[in-house]
Design brief:
Layout lengths: L14 H25 L4 H10 L2 H15 L3 H22 L5 H30 L2 H6 L1 H30 L2 H7 L2 H17 L11 H18 L5 H10 L2 H15 L11 H30 L1 H13 L3 H9 L4 H30 L4 H21 L1 H19 L2 H10 L14
Helix pairs in contact: 1-2, 1-5, 1-7, 1-9, 1-12, 2-17, 2-18, 3-5, 3-10, 3-17, 4-5, 4-8, 4-9, 7-8, 7-13, 11-17, 11-19, 12-17, 12-18, 13-14, 13-16, 14-16, 15-16, 15-18, 16-17
Length: 430
């Protein structure tokens, strides 16, 4: 029988708001930083290199998860970090128009990244404590939906707002400073809201020093067990290489759209980038993910792995076409971006299901966290050098390079494919 949570607070009161808030700082750090730095005159090489380093907290967050378990309750961590993240977003609004903005915004983004990664640990752990298993399963879709809403609001709505403010104020630094004010206010408000409405599970207590040390020992044992899995080195190589091309592409898409046509870009306005990439692109990515999930549940991971690999890579050719033809029609540009994003959402499904298969077993939670750390590392390292490569090759040459960079993932897929369980991911028939 499912064990009920300690309070009767309905999940609709806090699950949507909690996972909307989980996405906002991630969007600010990983996504909004790129067009912001581009519009503030930072070079492609520098913005790609330094924003890629901002992935690091998500790469290594499993390492300090035991300490979040040991000190205070997860509820305390959530509320405290939401106040801190709100202050960080407000600090961005203050330092963007000031002198030496690049250095100080990177400092604040780093603090936000570590806070957001820790908030992820606490909120995911709290979700497991506050809900019985049947509600955990039924609210997974709600979590994902509100996480996506935050992405659309940030990557689409806030970028569009930045473009509007650029035009209306004539002051680009002020425009980008102002867009961080609304999310800062929202975070302060949500922190107060969650202080009142988050449930108080009986099991959400601070671990003792002995338990904390035990948790750390358990984590070391889980890490060792992960690397004892059969074929794990090939599996890790697959996780690192699956998005080798995409990790570079994502760093330069928005700069490509924003850059003038004279340097190979498309000369799209900031508002239009918010609509094309932040709204239409994310909707297409979501639809691709939904279709991918349905097909994996119907046919299984092994049967869908190669089609999904093709789907995540082949649409990158859309950017080769955009860079070669430099169309001015926003509908054509939007269609090309949407096709690539749909393919990415579709193809990414098999990647996530494969990590679930690798993590499956008694230590699945810890092993999946390790997989997601390697996943973030696979985005961080290639992205660091994407801007430098683009500056040497031009946009057209860079997008051709991105297509060639997909070849190692094909080799890695061929290496892991014989070991993939043909039934994994497939919904059991009654």
């Amino acid at each position: 029988m499912d064990k009920p949570p300690a309070t009767s607070a309905h999940p609709w009161r806090w699950v949507p708001s909690l996972y909307f808030c989980q996405a906002v700082p991630y969007v600010a750090v990983v996504t909004l930083s790129i067009p912001m730095y581009k519009r503030l005159g930072v070079s492609n090489a520098d913005l790609a290199f330094y924003t890629s380093w901002l992935y690091l907290p998500w790469v290594i967050k499993p390492l300090w998860a035991p300490f979040v378990e040991r000190f205070h309750t997860k509820r305390w961590w959530i509320v405290a970090l939401q106040f801190f993240i709100g202050a960080g977003l407000a600090a961005l609004a203050l330092v963007i128009p000031g002198p030496d903005f690049f250095r100080w915004t990177l400092v604040v983004f780093w603090l936000l990244a570590f806070s957001a990664a820790t908030h992820d640990i606490a909120s995911d752990g709290f979700y497991l404590l506050a809900l019985p298993p049947h509600q955990q399963a039924s609210f997974v879709g709600i979590r994902s939906t509100f996480f996506r809403f935050a992405n659309i609001a940030g990557q689409g709505g806030l970028v569009w707002l930045a473009g509007y403010l650029e035009t209306s104020t004539g002051n680009i630094p002020l425009a980008w400073a102002l867009i961080f004010v609304p999310p800062a206010v929202v975070f302060f408000g949500v922190a107060i809201y969650h202080q009142v409405f988050l449930p108080r599970p009986a099991d959400d207590g601070p671990a003792s020093a002995t338990v904390g040390a035990g948790a750390l020992a358990d984590w070391v044992a889980a890490f060792a067990a992960f690397f004892r899995k059969p074929g794990i080195l090939v599996a890790v190589l697959f996780i690192l290489l699956y998005r080798l091309g995409e990790a570079q592409l994502v760093k330069l898409v928005q700069p490509f759209l924003l850059d003038p046509r004279s340097v190979g870009g498309l000369g799209v306005g900031t508002k239009e980038v918010g609509i094309i990439y932040g709204m239409a692109g994310l909707i297409s990515l979501t639809l691709g993910g939904l279709l991918g999930g349905w097909l994996v549940s119907r046919y299984g991971l092994k049967k869908m792995l190669w089609p999904m690999l093709a789907a995540i890579h082949a649409p990158n050719l859309a950017y080769v076409w955009l860079a070669y033809t430099q169309p001015s029609d926003p509908w054509l540009i939007g269609a090309a971006v949407s096709v690539e994003q749909f393919g990415y959402g579709f193809g990414f499904t098999s990647f996530v299901v494969y990590m679930m298969m690798i993590a499956d077993g008694p230590l699945r939670t810890a092993h999946y966290a390790i997989c997601t750390g390697f996943m973030a590392l696979g985005m961080m390292l290639p992205g660091m050098f994407a801007g430098k490569i683009q500056s040497q090759l031009s946009y057209l040459g860079f997008f051709i390079w991105v297509c060639l960079a997909t070849l190692p993932s094909i080799v890695a897929t061929a290496a892991i494919w014989p070991k993939v369980d043909p039934h994994y991911g497939k919904e059991a028939k009654a």
